[in-house]
């Protein structure tokens, strides 16, 4: 019996990476994905495996059902406060056994995709992940979801449209933000006060950490426009944590980073970051 159990455990381990990859895309959390995979092992160890012809398919179906239940449980707790859910998420991440691996998985999957997936219903998310990412047949997915094959096709199609629509919308948004930042920098260099005003939210705030370490705050469109007019000569457009921003690096020496918050087509916040430790924590790329 022990030898049989060990052989079954070895076979299960050969599928673990695949199962965790699928569960992570469905759940967006490595710790939850590992819980789902472990539950699949418990169910397998309590089952008569001699009747399972396709162990990989059986395990994928079990993990998918577990993930579906977990996603539905999340939905039922939507009434929880944002603060408590955020605390729960942070605690989950801190307790993850391998945070580096979760970071790698996030990079591999793509943060944008994970955000869009989180907006799908549990059934839509499972259908999309299993079909479009792991190429399972609609018949197999229908058995997991407990729906007809036709209904499953509709779920996957709807998910695909929503994901592509969100990606297109996000691409257009980023393009618009990049143009706004570039226009802002050009107007600042040229000292074009009136143009600067048209790009700024009336209640815009600039936080500048140079000098004291405690950010100095400038509020209001006119005050900020006066402050930057004729300046930013060395600033050039860049991506700051994946969002349009700017860096100032005359003769290759990085002086500061500009991070923008854009709301309804206007610049609502500007963070000027010169602190070396804060800059080290940013992901920078030249556009």
Descriptive notes:
The protein is α+β, with helices and mostly antiparallel strands and 287 residues long. Helix content is 62%, strand content 15%. The protein has twelve helices and seven strands. Strands 2-1-6-5-4-3-7 form a seven-stranded mixed sheet. The longest helix has 42 residues, at 149-190. The protein is elongated, with a radius of gyration of 25 Å. The N and C termini lie far apart (62 Å). Mean pLDDT is 80; it is low at 78-96.
Can you lay out the helices and strands and say which pair or pack?
Layout: H1 2-27, H2 30-45, H3 55-76, H4 82-94, H5 99-109, H6 111-117, H7 122-133, H8 138-145, H9 149-190, H10 193-199, E1 200-208, E2 216-219, H11 221-228, E3 235-240, E4 243-248, E5 256-263, E6 266-273, H12 276-280, E7 284-286
- The sequence of SSEs as H and E is HHHHHHHHHHEEHEEEEHE
Residue stretches low in confidence (pLDDT < 50, at least 5 long) are 78-96
Helix content: 55-70%
Strand order within the widest sheet? 2-1-6-5-4-3-7
Structure summary, number of beta strands = 7
Give a nutshell description of this structure.
Helix content is 62%, strand content 15%. It has helices at residues 2-27, 30-45, 55-76, 82-94, 99-109, 111-117, 122-133, 138-145, 149-190, 193-199, 221-228, 276-280; strands at residues 200-208, 216-219, 235-240, 243-248, 256-263, 266-273, 284-286.
């Amino acid at each position: 019996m022990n030898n049989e159990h060990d052989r079954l455990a070895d076979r299960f381990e050969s599928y673990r990476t695949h199962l965790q990859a699928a569960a992570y895309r469905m759940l967006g959390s490595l710790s939850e994905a590992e819980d789902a995979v472990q539950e699949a092992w418990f169910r397998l160890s309590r089952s008569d495996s001699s009747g399972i012809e396709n162990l990989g398919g059986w395990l994928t179906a079990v993990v998918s059902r577990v993930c579906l239940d977990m996603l539905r449980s999340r939905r039922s707790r939507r009434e929880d406060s944002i603060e408590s859910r955020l605390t729960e998420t942070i605690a989950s991440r801190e307790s993850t056994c391998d945070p580096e691996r979760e970071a790698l998985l996030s990079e591999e999957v793509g943060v944008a995709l994970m955000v869009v997936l989180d907006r799908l219903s549990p059934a839509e998310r499972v259908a999309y992940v299993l079909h479009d990412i792991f190429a399972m047949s609609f018949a197999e997915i229908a058995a997991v979801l407990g729906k007809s094959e036709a209904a499953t096709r509709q779920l996957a199609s709807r998910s695909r449209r929503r994901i592509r629509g969100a990606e297109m919308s996000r691409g257009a948004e980023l393009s618009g933000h990049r143009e706004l930042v570039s226009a802002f920098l050009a107007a600042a260099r040229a000292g074009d006060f009136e143009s600067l005003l048209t790009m700024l939210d009336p209640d815009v705030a600039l936080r500048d950490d140079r000098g004291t370490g405690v950010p100095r705050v400038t509020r209001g469109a006119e005050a900020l426009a006066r402050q930057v007019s004729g300046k930013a000569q060395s600033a050039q457009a860049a991506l700051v944590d994946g969002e349009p921003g700017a860096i100032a690096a005359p003769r290759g020496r990085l002086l500061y980073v500009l991070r923008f918050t854009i709301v309804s087509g206007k610049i609502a916040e500007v963070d000027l970051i010169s602190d070396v430790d804060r800059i080290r924590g940013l992901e920078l790329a030249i556009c």
